[in-house]
Write a structure and sequence with these properties.
Structural class: alpha/beta
Largest sheet: 7 strands, parallel
Pfam family, one: adh_short_C2
Strand order of the largest sheet: 3-2-1-4-7-8-9
Number of helices: 8
Number of domains: 1
Bound molecules: 1,4-dihydronicotinamide adenine dinucleotide, ligand LTTKRYJ7
Catalytic activity: (2R,3S)-2,3-dihydroxy-2,3-dihydro-p-cumate + NAD(+) = 2,3-dihydroxy-p-cumate + NADH + H(+)
Protein name: 2,3-dihydroxy-2,3-dihydro-p-cumate dehydrogenase
InterPro entries: KR_dom (IPR057326), NAD(P)-bd_dom_sf (IPR036291), Sc_DH/Rdtase_CS (IPR020904), SDR_fam (IPR002347)
CATH superfamily: NAD(P)-binding Rossmann-like Domain
Order of helices and strands: EHEHEHEEEHEHEHHHE
Helix content: 40-55%
Number of strands: 9
Domain Ketoreductase: 6-194
């Protein structure tokens, strides 16, 4: 698929990795539908995309809400007339141990609400957006790809029951959707990033950063552009489907 003039929706497109993907695809001439909760961040990201050479429109939407998602994808079709791809990128962290001994007493530490909030956004949100994008693409006769952003934590990371379960779930959806959607000319792939440089890591003390990167075989964190280029590769290569790409500097948790 050529990215020039393709319409690509990115959830969580307002900041971080989603914004980096948007700018990278915009520079290749893609037309971006940026979806996020934060209106101000969306406006900044859309401006950056336009400067990079692509068109961009913004949609305030909670990916965990079925109504919001249905309205958003209807609006995208109304605005652009087509949809060629989706990057399911929006995600949240609410880390915590499941149980812990404190003062000789065993405590339940991960609250149900803490579990559910991550499942709602990181797993149900991916399902809702994937289902809506596929429906609109099939109705319109548009071919393309859906990409689920997972994490190295999908293998199971201490303190991340909720997050690891959701990321394992979105990884499992990749071969399911690849098989179900191939007949409509829609591919599905996943990316599992390791530790990536963000605004949060930029503000960390050098000693803490050094400790974090010491265990990574490539001895550095990944750059947002390295995730964005994996996204572009997937859209541009019409024979990749049903698999995960691990972009993690060879780290294993
Ligand atoms: N930064 C990293 O090192 C890694 C990130 N990831 C994954 O990459 C993705 C992006 O991560 P970052 O850019 O670091 O995060 P971030 O927190 O900087 O950006 C996430 C974006 O998603 C949006 N969002 C959150 N909940 C939403 C909802 N309910 N509806 C719509 N938008 C919502 C936020 O407003 C924000 O703009 C996530 O899925 C994350 O799990 C995976 C591995 C490593
Ligand atoms: C534990 C993994 C590598 C990780 C680290 C940081 C973030 C983040 O800041 O959003 C993640 O989403 C992760 O999956």
């Amino acid at each position: 698929m050529k990215l020039q003039d393709s319409v690509i929706a990115i959830t969580g497109g307002g900041q971080g990795l989603g914004r980096a993907m948007a700018e990278y695809l915009a520079a290749k001439g893609a037309r971006l539908a940026l979806i996020d909760l934060m209106e101000d961040k969306l406006a900044e990201a859309a401006d950056a995309c336009k400067k990079a050479g692509g068109d961009a429109k913004t949609y305030v939407c909670n990916v965990a809400k079925e109504d919001d998602v249905e309205k958003t994808f209807q609006a995208i079709i109304n605005d652009f007339g087509h949809l060629n791809g989706l990057v399911n990128n929006a995600g949240i962290l609410r880390d915590g141990l499941m149980v812990k001994f404190k003062d000789g007493k065993l405590e339940k530490r991960m609250e149900l609400a803490q579990w559910q909030s991550v499942i709602d956004v990181n797993l149900t949100g991916v399902f809702l957006c994937g289902r809506e994008a596929a429906t609109r693409m099939i109705e319109n006769g548009d071919q393309g790809a859906i990409i689920n952003i997972a994490s190295i934590s999908r293998a199971g990371n201490m303190g991340q029951s909720n997050y690891s379960a959701a990321k394992a779930g979105v990884s499992a959806l990749v071969p399911v959707w690849a098989k179900e959607l191939a007949r409509y000319g829609i591919r599905c792939m996943g990316i599992a990033p390791g530790f990536i440089e963000t605004e949060m890591t930029a503000s960390m003390k050098p000693e803490a950063l050094e400790k974090m990167t010491a265990g990574i075989p490539l001895k550095r964190m990944g750059k947002p552009e390295e995730i964005a280029s994996a996204v572009a590769f997937i859209f541009e290569n019409d024979y990749v489907s049903g698999r995960m790409i691990e972009v993690d500097g060879a780290l294993r948790l």
